[in-house]
Amino acid sequence: MVVVMRTDATEADVEHVVDRVREAGGDAFVSRGKFRTIIGLVGDTEAFLSMPLATLPGVDQVVKVGKPYKLVARELHPQLTTVHVGDAEIGRATFSMIAGPCAVETRDQALAAARAAKAAGATVLRGGAYKPRTSPYAFQGLARRGLEILAECKTETGLPIVTEVLDAGDVEHVAEVADALQIGTRNMQNFALLKEVGRVHKPVLLKRGLSATVEEWLMAAEYVAQQGNTEIILCERGIRTFETATRNTLDLAGMVAAQIETHLPVVVDPSHATGRHDLVAPMARAALAAGADGVMVDVHPEPSEALCDGPQALTPPEVEALGAELAALATALGRPMA
Ligand code: PEP
Ligand code: MN
């Protein structure tokens, strides 16, 4: 961190800042320019951030120069992380497809979607049993019954399961069935929930908050990692903008920016990002071309009958076609689909 003094700051003002930093256990290096003095701080940035440095006499601004995240930072952990979800490996060496129903609605619907995911080449099955719906009157998911159906889908297809957990109190029993726990966009900054999944030995799929910056998203991952769980997959799922042609705006640049900052894998959900089935395949291809570690897509055997997010769901033939297309493209790009 750097403290920039005002041009009219006195020597006593500079010394006062230095004293305060040293009292807090840090060190301060003063650099005197022609017009301004700047003070470089060395030590515990968090301790400095909690001090009212900006309000001290003669201080113009306090500038953070380091990254606020540490455990998830690529700078400090250059080795890229591969996250294991059951037998599936999500990381930079391959390109992975996660597919399945948005919500588990019935046994037949979930099984049909799971079979299609498998046939498409997906290595992880998605499906929500606890659904975070905007309206309290909308279908909220089958809860424990949904988890039972997911377990049956896993037995039949052999695919490991990622499913959302909405409440810290549900983490334990969801983790009994899930191979990975999903934190949805609306809960990205539910810090109690992040800490709870951080204490569980299951990978976490952390969706980007719909109004979160890349830095806030990485700080949410830092909460999970800080509890000891660094098996985290980040998922870009679109952010809120002024645009109404799509449900959200897919931020592929933000996805790559996150990959540059972190050693964790980053996948893209073109279904929730666009809300439109006709845009899912183009955006999945774009995500692969941009270097994403995988995609997560919604599948429904009968999208027009879906209780949740039908307009963005691919039918079984559509997801199979997308899987074949992505596999060919991934091979061409030297990152086989697996
Ligand atoms: C989902 O993947 O089912 C979901 C609810 O996504 P999001 O949290 O990104 O809206
Ligand atoms: Mn959904």
Order of helices and strands: EHEEHEEEEHEHEHEHEHEHEHHEH
Query: What level of helicity do the residues show?
Result: 25-40%
Distance between the termini: 43 Å
Principal-axis shape equals: elongated
Q: How much of the residues is beta strand, in percent?
A: 15-25%
Unreliable runs? none
Largest sheet: 8 strands, parallel, barrel
Task: Write up what this structure looks like.
This protein is of the alpha/beta class. The protein is 36% helix and 18% strand. It has 11 helices and 14 strands. It has helices spanning 11-23, 45-49, 107-120, 144-157, 171-177, 191-198, 214-226, 252-261, 270-274, 277-290, 316-332, and strands spanning 2-5, 27-32, 37-42, 59-63, 83-85, 88-90, 96-100, 124-126, 161-164, 180-183, 204-207, 232-236, 266-268, 294-298. The strands form 3 sheets. The chain has an 8-stranded parallel beta barrel with strand order 7-8-9-10-11-12-13-14, surrounded by 7 helices. Strand 7 (96-100), helix 3 (107-120) and strand 8 (124-126) form a beta-alpha-beta unit. Helix 3 runs parallel beside helix 11, helix 6 (191-198) packs across helix 7 and helix 10 runs parallel beside helix 11. The chain is elongated, with a radius of gyration of 23 Å. The chain starts with a strand and ends in a 6-residue tail after the last helix. The mean pLDDT is 97. Bound molecules: phosphoenolpyruvate and manganese (II) ion.
